[in-house]
Specification:
Length: about 300
């Protein structure tokens, strides 16, 4: 089976890089510290108070560890992908890369795949820590598979944003800042806009304002709620609710939507949002390949004739 040469080269470089080793060390150190500390607090509290261990606390520990792992993916992936193409341009090696037999789409996919490989390595290297919760009970193997799927799709989604801006912008600093800004907009701004609309609707109907996460009676965002399908954080919280029953306040917006009980998308939000983000990633990769193609920048024959 032929392996993408760009991916193969980047994989060799990352495997020999000290940065990759440091990222692995930092990622697993943070997971271990938070995970083991949570275990210590849970069992020590039970012993000190002379009561049995409440094994439902293990689910909270899983939520904490999964949240840390997910958050680190959102922080690490942009740093790995935002300079993938712009870095080649700054080193003046992009032109050489474009003269190879590899297509621009192959170059873009190779750069993205190398970054995804690092993230998957992080995810699988953190499995022993998550497996502590799995061994005690409360979390199934299917739950772990869902978490890996979430990490994989989120890494592709966020990574495709980073690669797109890396092609669009000439400087790595500019592409990195723009990528992080885009992710902030996806996570914070989309939710803030819908929360503001939901609050206004609730107040217009005579409801009393009781807090930022108040669930107003008969208030509904209707189909505008589907804007949150591109929000990775909402996807993560819906996964946790399915797995451990945690009801994050941010999910009130989804629950209050019209026909929430009979709507297919609302009932399968986790998988629908992953598919939506994957489709957007495909368009971003295609757009990046188009922008990177030097032939697309040449004037057409009709223009030359004129």
């Amino acid at each position: 089976m032929k392996i993408n040469p760009i991916y193969k080269k980047e994989l060799k470089i990352s495997a020999r890089s000290k940065k990759t080793a440091l990222i692995l060390l930092g990622y697993n150190t943070l997971l271990a510290i938070f995970g083991l500390f949570a275990f210590y607090i849970t069992f020590d509290s039970a012993i000190q108070n002379g009561r049995d261990v409440d094994y439902s606390d293990m689910l909270r520990i899983y939520s904490i560890i999964a949240g840390i792992g997910f958050g680190l993916v959102l922080l690490i992936v942009p740093a790995l992908t935002a300079g993938s193409i712009s870095g080649e341009r700054e080193k003046q090696t992009l032109e050489i890369l474009l003269t190879t037999k590899e297509s621009t789409l192959g170059i873009v996919l190779g750069k993205l795949a190398s970054s995804i490989s690092v993230i998957l390595l992080l995810a699988f290297s953190g499995m022993p820590i998550l497996s502590l919760v799995f061994a005690i009970g409360g979390v199934t193997f299917l739950n772990l598979c869902q978490f890996i799927l979430l990490i994989f799709v989120t890494a592709i989604f966020v990574g495709s944003i980073g690669v797109f801006f890396s092609v669009l912008l000439k400087k790595t600093t500019a592409s990195t800042v723009t990528t992080y800004s885009a992710i902030l907009i996806l996570i914070v701004v989309t939710f803030a806009i819908l929360l503001a609309i939901y609050t206004i609707i609730g107040l217009k109907q005579g409801n009393k304002y009781e807090g930022i996460f108040t669930e107003y009676e008969n208030a509904s965002l209707g189909n505008t709620i589907f804007l949150l399908l591109i929000n990775p954080a909402i996807t993560f919280f819906t996964m946790l609710r399915e797995q451990v029953g945690d009801q994050a306040p941010v999910l009130y917006l989804i629950d209050s939507s019209t026909n929430a009980g009979s709507n297919f998308i609302l009932n399968n939000w986790f998988y629908v949002s992953l598919i939506t983000q994957a489709i957007i990633s495909v368009f971003l990769m295609a757009g990046a390949a188009k922008l990177l193609d030097p032939l697309s920048k040449r004037p057409s024959k009709s223009h030359k004739t004129k």
